[in-house]
Amino acid sequence: MPAEARGREPLHLTLPPGTHPAGGNARGGDATVKPAPGAARRAAQANEDKTMSANLKYLSLGILVFQTTSLVLTMRYSRTLKEEGPRYLSSTAVVVAELLKIMACILLVYKDSKCSLRALNRILHDEILNKPMETLKLAIPSGIYTLQNNLLYVALSNLDAATYQVTYQLKILTTALFSVSMLSKKLGVYQWLSLVILMTGVAFVQWPSDSQELDSKELSAGSQFVGLMAVLTACFSSGFAGVYFEKILKETKQSVWIRNIQLGFFGSIFGLMGVYIYDGELVSKNGFFQGYNRLTWIVVILQALGGLVIAAVIKYADNILKGFATSLSIILSTLISYFWLQDFVPTSYPLFLENDFNCSLRFPSWLEYSWEIALIVEDAW
Ligand code: C5P
Predict the structure, then answer these.
(1) What secondary structure letter does DSSP report for 23?
(2) What are the pocket residues of ligand 1 if the criterion is a CB atom closer than 6 Å to any ligand atom?
(3) What is the mean pLDDT of residues 72-80?
């Protein structure tokens, strides 16, 4: 623990209740008072945990920005690559990503249990199989995420990609609303205002280019309405599922990796149902892994990594900061696309990459104005 952190420890924390140092002032006036060793150790441990949590918070947010940005770019590259044969099925990619996520979480629990297979087995039994009610709690966010994936699919089929992305930014506000109502978070006027500015700003960075506006005119008003309703519902489900997961993580004792295994378990079941419903025939004809190539595997691994990092961000930071990180990665991937790939108007997405992963560029001045947004947000938080 850093020396300055130790030095900041308030005296009253180090005194066990009802204990007064011999000859000392009961109000702690004696600066030479020595804390009881047990209490001092506990306070030092608490301080160390706090520093560690702060480090993990920024580390997980940084990795989320990296992961989201790489996923956007890899996905964009994979979409522009011409390949022979059938394209991979996004429904199977969802399942593979969930399974990879579960395997990674099991490895992390194994590491936490000092690399003992027996301990791992006991933890999985005690925490997952023997606590069916706790495990069942995760069926709710998992089911909502599955519904959300499907809603976003409906949205993408009825709206052009850019309108979809712009509208989906509303989830920044719904997440804040659920954080306030379900977790009793307090947000000041400036913080609300900064969220509105962030939402509007990110939406503007992705505002449809002229060619995309033309595309959207080809969609009927009725179909646009269906798409809009789907994406608006997804905004609420995203906010609710994220905050519900945060509530479970922060209000119960189970580790974030155990919680992720439970989430992934239900995610795989719902995902397999999706494979059966949407692509059952294609899978029985061409196989589960049809169209998979090296790039598909990279995208799937990045997606699984995303699940791990999102869980860590929700645990060590919160859903609102997660929104900041994904907004930052939208700006970052736009920046890389603009200067490096010079290609930033993809028009369709695999279902499982439905999130914040598209950005089309309209004004070169967006960079300057993203910077303004960052400054406003930084001031408010
Ligand atoms: O758009 P939104 O931020 O709500 O998307 C969250 C995505 O992250 C969902 O697709 C969900 O399946 C995924 N997720 C995950 N593991 C978690 C939490 C969310 O894979 N622990």
Answers:
(1) T
(2) 145, 238, 242, 245, 260, 263, 307, 310-311, 355
(3) 69
